[in-house]
Design brief:
Blueprint lengths: L17 H11 L16 H10 L16 H14 L5 E7 L2 E7 L4 H5 L32 E2 L23 E5 L3 H4 L5 H5 L21 E13 L1 E7 L11 E12 L5 E9 L1 H4 L5 E7 L8 E2 L7 E2 L21 E10 L2 E8 L2 E9 L12 E12 L20 E9 L5 E3 L3 E3 L7 E7 L11 E6 L7
Parallel strand pairs: 3-12
Antiparallel strand pairs: 1-2, 2-4, 5-15, 5-18, 6-12, 6-16, 7-8, 7-15, 8-9, 9-10, 11-14, 12-13, 13-14, 16-17, 16-20, 19-20
């Protein structure tokens, strides 16, 4: 999965000087879509499907950067894509980054069809989006100046370069197109669904002992507490992932975890994963597993799991803006909440959050997350073999505001629905590469201050992690 990127050569150093890091991250933080080059040609949806039907394994197996291992594996990918879009009607399509997105009727998306839904579930009430009666003194001055994202796309990015609207009509949702080009970068269909390419994914608090092909590194915080959801405002960055050095991905996220028996999760955050998405930009992602990442799970809408109900967010899509070192700080709020048998996901900015969709609790069978979660985790993760990419901004947590990544407004819902502040433990398994500063209390007096409990995270990565 090695790729050649068009990013500045300064990013190819393992550990960057502060000045070079500032220059490179500033480049990555600029508004994204209008200035792109090499955007793919537009392919109408029916033409795309016809191409899937007529595709030949010889054009994919052992060709170029493709990793699909044989014609049988290719055939299973081909049939999967055709099944994914079976009977789906597309009202419009558009380009976003190097991807096509298709506007599909809510009830014709793969998860709704597989689960036989005749209607989508009722979302939680609006007053569940914010904790009630949770205030506390304290001011952070400049720390309140972050730019909250209520949509991935800036106003001037809502039409693609060919004039197609990127806003889906009512009762439709934007689904990132799943292509054979993407699938064939993985050896098998199962490998495509896995969170990391060797299938050795784990939680930060439950790391796998080698041997494994790739190693996972973290800077994170956690709390064991029975809960029905949590909230997290995540500082948005796009750290460089050097695939020529066998670096795989870098992300920041929250994990809502069931730990009684098998590990089950509902996850959300941003992730730079060139081997999956085909470029060097962080994307909005969700992920789930019902059996410890063994046989279940997938990203975004790649399998029939998450039911998207709102069209304002683009799973697997990039953002218009990213934070810059010493400059503008962008963030988005993400929260999971178990309501009437569904793990609802809210996305937006503090005070302006929308319920976007849900994982049905039935996905988790009789496991712990059918009724609650027992662990919450917040932080960053990177994957590599002999070299690991930067996490967050690429600076250590001690760099602080606008120089290190942060996560803030951290609280959870107790069973019964009461909101409680977190009591987190910080962990630094790889302190030579990544660190945590905090958690700290920053005050909570909406609408002027939404900081609450927060921490800084991240670091430069390297070869000695």
């Amino acid at each position: 999965m090695k790729r050649t990127h068009r990013y500045p050569s300064c990013l190819k150093a393992t550990r960057l000087s502060f000045a070079l890091a500032t220059l490179c991250v500033a480049f990555a933080g600029s508004s994204s879509f209008a200035a792109q080059t090499g955007q793919p040609s537009f392919v109408p949806f029916q033409q795309f499907l016809n191409g899937i039907k007529s595709a030949n394994a010889d054009a994919y197996v052992a060709r170029g950067q493709n990793a699909v291992k044989d014609s049988a594996s290719f055939a299973s990918m081909q049939q999967y894509v055709l099944g994914l879009y079976q009977n789906a009607h597309v009202s419009q399509s558009f380009l976003l980054g190097n991807d096509h997105f298709d506007c599909i009727l809510v009830q014709e998306q793969p998860s709704a069809r597989k689960q036989g839904l005749t209607h989508v579930a009722t979302p939680p009430p609006v007053d569940a989006l914010q904790p009630q009666g949770m205030t506390g003194g304290g001011t952070l001055n400049s720390l309140n100046q972050a730019i909250g994202i209520s949509s991935q796309l800036a106003e001037n990015d809502k039409i693609d370069a060919l004039g197609h609207s990127r806003v889906c009509a009512a009762d439709t949702i934007p689904m990132r197109r799943i292509t054979l080009e993407e699938l064939s970068r993985f050896p098998t269909l199962k490998a495509y669904f896995q969170k990391s390419p060797d299938g050795a994914e784990q939680l930060p608090t439950n790391q796998i002992v080698p041997p494994q092909v790739y190693s996972h590194k973290y800077s994170y915080t956690y709390q064991y507490v029975t809960n029905i959801g949590q909230t997290d405002t995540i500082n948005l960055w796009s750290p460089y992932v050097n695939t020529s050095a066998d670096q795989i991905f870098s992300l920041a996220q929250s994990w809502t975890v069931g730990t009684t028996g098998t590990t089950q999760t509902a996850e959300v955050g941003w992730q730079n994963y060139p081997g999956k998405y085909g470029d060097e930009r962080s994307r909005l992602f969700i992920y789930w597993t019902a059996d410890g990442y063994v046989n279940t799970g997938c990203y975004n809408l790649d399998c029939s799991a998450f039911v998207q109900t709102n069209s304002s967010w683009y799973f697997g899509g990039p953002f218009s803006n990213y934070s810059t070192v010493g400059g503008a700080q962008y963030e988005f709020l993400a929260q999971y909440y178990l309501y009437q048998g569904n793990w609802w996901l809210g996305l937006g900015s503090p005070g302006n959050v929308t319920w976007v969709g849900y994982y049905p609790a039935t996905l988790y069978g009789s496991g712990p997350m059918s009724t609650s979660a027992q662990l919450i985790e917040f932080g960053s993760e990177s994957v590599g073999s002999t070299s690991w990419p930067a996490e967050g901004s690429g600076n250590f947590a001690s760099s602080g505001w606008s120089y290190a990544g942060y996560q803030r407004e951290l609280w959870y819902w107790a069973p019964g629905g009461a909101a409680d502040w977190v009591s987190l433990t910080a962990a630094e398994p790889s302190p030579s590469c990544y660190s945590i500063a905090g958690p700290y209390w920053g005050g909570y007096t909406p609408p002027s201050n939404y900081w609450g409990y927060y921490f800084y995270f991240g670091g430069p990565g390297g070869t000695t992690c």
